[in-house]
Amino acid sequence: MSRVVVLGGGESGVGSAVLAKAKGFDVFLSDMGNISEKYAAMLQEWDIPFEQGKHSEELILNADEVIKSPGIPSTAPMVKKIVEGGINVISEIEFAGRYDSAKKVCITGSNGKTTTTSLIYHLLKNAGLNVGLGGNIGKSYAYQVATEHHDIYVLELSSFQLDNVYDFKADIAIITNITPDHLDRYDYKMENYVKSKFRITRNMSSDDCFIFCSDDEITIKHLDQIVMKAQKLPFTQKEEVSQGAFVQGDRMIVRYKEEECDMYLQELALGGRHNVYNSMAAAIAAKVMDIDNKAIREGLATFEAVEHRLEKVLSIRDVLYINDSKATNVDSAWYALECQTRPVVWIVGGTDKGNDYSSLIPLAQEKVKAMICMGLDNTKFHESFGGVVSEIHDVTSAEDAVKLASELAESGDVVLLSPCCASFDLFKNYEDRGRQFKEAVRRL
């Protein structure tokens, strides 16, 4: 019996362990941190041995294969030992893909991937298809392969999840855009990060489709360096294309093979220029999946925004509070500021990932009346925006940030949590940060 060791006891790791158990492997799971009660109970229910708070070499280095959770960097000491021992290291996505014959629509990108993934899932589900949602969102893909049956999976894939895929193949692959992010995991080399994103196109054949933003300079620059058999379908807001999607006046037009689908931009459920891109990418995928025009229009008009992504929380005394906690990089925050039409009290801060804030300065100058830095080290924000925004304050909790914002904001303003940074200095994750923000707003 082959031995599979899983590193990491979160959603991805536990899902992988369950699938390995279901397929008859000798499974062991190890986590350097603490495993939550929910996941420990799942492992016990499936009779999977595990350890937490340590990595025991004698129980790990005898593996035939190791499945590594995406949060663990390849530089972690135990991962290095595993690789030195000649043991194959793969991701949950690679492992689950071996046991799954469903069609796979896979989405990656620095920004917009959660919205685009959720939008495609919404379009396919609304059209009555048997579809699963997974990857970096919702339930673990491996767990679903072990316990459910779907004809199609819509998978959001982060660069970390793609780093250890080799034979996995998408039927439809989408890159929403590529901007500097997570460079701390890629030796601060943009090139490495871009290559990681393009792994989503591995193993694709001429029957498959690659959907991409032709307005995104980094994607286009690297497209020529990738040998790809898949059909290329661009989406753009700058020109007309014969296949793919584009904007003409106040309409979005999608062309695939002989078919055409159009829709007024004002009918899209999601506002903002960036969401036109997300809607175009989703509409092309739906067209490729043979969804009819009426269902596509209906789906794009009825979709509800993703939690923590430009989510309107409440309006109190004519001040609108917006939770954009998912904006963990500069580009996401740029979109969030760009679509604001009212004066902004901007809440930022967290763990800096090697960010360059210069692209935000013109927007901050034009729209931001005050900044609240919610992080343990806010030096970089003060240095970058000191001469640009007249008021900059420091706080160390969501409650204090919201309280202060409510004092600084006047009728007609927006309080925008769009942090530009990871959340790990003060919060468990971006969801925890967003929920604490929303709770604090409700308590005002």
Describe the 3D structure:
The chain is an alpha/beta fold and 444 residues long. Helix content is 34%, strand content 23%. The protein has three domains: 88 residues, 3-Layer(aba) Sandwich (Rossmann fold); 209 residues, UDP-N-acetylmuramoyl-L-alanine:D-glutamate ligase (3-Layer(aba) Sandwich); 132 residues, Alpha-Beta Complex (Protein-Tyrosine Phosphatase, Chain A). It has 17 helices and 20 strands. It has a nine-stranded mixed β-sheet, covered by helices on one side. Strand 7, helix 7 and strand 8 form a beta-alpha-beta unit. It starts with a strand and ends with a helix. The model has no long low-confidence stretch (mean pLDDT 93).
List the helices and strands and how they pair.
Elements: E1 3-7, H1 11-22, E2 26-31, H2 37-45, E3 50-52, H3 57-60, E4 65-68, H4 77-84, E5 88-90, H5 92-97, E6 103-108, H6 113-126, E7 131-135, H7 141-147, E8 152-156, H8 159-162, E9 172-175, H9 190-198, E10 209-213, H10 217-223, E11 231-236, E12 244-248, E13 251-256, E14 259-264, H11 273-288, H12 293-302, E15 311-316, E16 319-323, H13 330-338, E17 344-348, H14 361-367, E18 368-374, H15 379-385, E19 391-395, H16 398-408, E20 414-417, H17 430-442
Averaged pLDDT: 93
Low-confidence segments, given as residue ranges, are none
Number of strands: 20
Looking at the structure, the CATH topology of the largest domain is UDP-N-acetylmuramoyl-L-alanine:D-glutamate ligase
Oligomer: single chain
| Percent helix | 25-40%
Shape: globular
Percent of residues in beta strands: 15-25%
- How would you characterize the largest beta sheet? 9 strands, mixed
Give the neighbour order of strands across the main sheet: 7-8-6-9-10-11-12-13-14
CATH class of the largest domain: Alpha Beta
- Whole-angstrom Rg: 22 Å
Structural category:
alpha/beta
User: How many structural units, i.e. domains?
Assistant: 3
CATH superfamily of the largest domain: Mur-like, catalytic domain
How far is the N terminus from the C terminus?
59 Å
Number of helices: 17
